[in-house]
Amino acid sequence: MIKLKYNQHIINKNLGQNFLIDSDVIRNIINSINPKKTDIMIEIGSGLGALTTHIHKFLNKLFIIEYDKHLASRLFLSFGNVNSIKIFVQDVLKFNFSCIEKKNYDSIRIFGNLPYNISVILLLYLFKYDNIFDMNFMFQREVANRLVALPGTKSYGRLSIISQYHCKIMRLFDVYPRSFRPIPKVSSTFLRLVPYKNQEHYVKNIHNLEKVTALAFNKRRKMIKHSLSELFSENILIKLKVDPRLRAENLSITQYCILSNYIS
Ligand code: SAM
């Protein structure tokens, strides 16, 4: 089997390796993140350092996380002597983001051209932390569309509700496949997610929001009086001012929160 290489690195597809090569896109990312000396930043998946090289010059402290050992040794070669950079060679899904806080930083800013295969699971992992100021991430376009989707649209679903419950999400710009090597089959979009300090919506128990949305969207085309019948009678839905004839995609986040709080 032919091994695909970029810049003398053998691509590991399982780690979602598509390296940014477009200097306009790199500039757009840095400008939109707008790094400041006092920011404590963490980059997820630094790869060959396409973003690291530029952004670290603006910062006093940058933590970078890279899982691939070959790439990590290249990062040590490039940045091992840079005092402001600390390199972690580990799986970001096992990284303890509170360990940064213990070192007296108020809140952290995270960014990255994410490996697409773990982007959703990573977001759900990051939502558990309360010391994050913002997250600036490249996503597969389809996932970005789901993250920002509004009720009544095709992309609106559980991911939109859970993510918009936790964060204010801004779509920054789209990126073409040709900006990466190897060229991916999908297009990308860069988003900013800012976790709410004071929750815009409130649920007593987040697991109930997960449960209600799972039931509703498992039977997306059914009216909620049927899909949610296990949890709510038609009368209760009416009492909670949620029209029982609506379908999962027509309920607002506030309505999902009301339903979740009722079963809490
Ligand atoms: N930042 C580089 C760039 O823009 O060119 C590389 C981006 S590439 C899309 C994703 C990077 O994340 C790769 O370097 C990959 O090895 C790394 N990665 C994949 N899974 C990871 C994980 N679980 N934890 C940390 N890094 C991971």
TrEMBL record:
* Taxonomy, superkingdom: Bacteria
Please give the SUPFAM superfamilies that the UniProt record associates with this protein: S-adenosyl-L-methionine-dependent methyltransferases (SSF53335)
Kindly indicate whether the keyword Transmembrane helix belongs to this entry.
yes
Q: Which EC class is this protein assigned?
A: transferase
Looking at the UniProt record for this protein, which Gene Ontology cellular component terms does it annotate, in alphabetical order? cytosol
Q: Does the keyword Plastid apply?
A: no
Q: Where does S-adenosyl-L-methionine bind?
A: 18, 20, 45, 66, 91, 113
Residue ranges of coiled coil: none
Domain Ribosomal RNA adenine methylase transferase N-terminal residues, every copy: 25-197
Q: What Enzyme Commission number does this protein have?
A: 2.1.1.182
List the InterPro entries.
KsgA/Erm, rRNA_Ade_diMease-like_C, rRNA_Ade_methylase_Trfase_N, rRNA_adenine_dimethylase, SAM-dependent_MTases_sf
Q: Which GO terms describe its molecular function?
A: 16S rRNA (adenine(1518)-N(6)/adenine(1519)-N(6))-dimethyltransferase activity; RNA binding
Q: Name the residues that span the membrane.
A: 110-127
Question: What is the catalytic activity of this protein?
Answer: adenosine(1518)/adenosine(1519) in 16S rRNA + 4 S-adenosyl-L-methionine = N(6)-dimethyladenosine(1518)/N(6)-dimethyladenosine(1519) in 16S rRNA + 4 S-adenosyl-L-homocysteine + 4 H(+)
- Subcellular location per the Swiss-Prot or TrEMBL entry: Cytoplasm
Which UniProt key words apply to this protein?
A: Cytoplasm, Membrane, Methyltransferase, RNA-binding, rRNA processing, S-adenosyl-L-methionine, Transferase, Transmembrane, Transmembrane helix
Pfam families listed in its UniProt record = RrnaAD
Q: Which PANTHER family match?
A: DIMETHYLADENOSINE TRANSFERASE, DIMETHYLADENOSINE TRANSFERASE-RELATED
The record's comment on protein family reads: Belongs to the class I-like SAM-binding methyltransferase superfamily. rRNA adenine N(6)-methyltransferase family. RsmA subfamily.
Q: What does this protein do?
A: Specifically dimethylates two adjacent adenosines (A1518 and A1519) in the loop of a conserved hairpin near the 3'-end of 16S rRNA in the 30S particle. May play a critical role in biogenesis of 30S subunits.
Question: What's the protein called, per UniProt?
Answer: Ribosomal RNA small subunit methyltransferase A
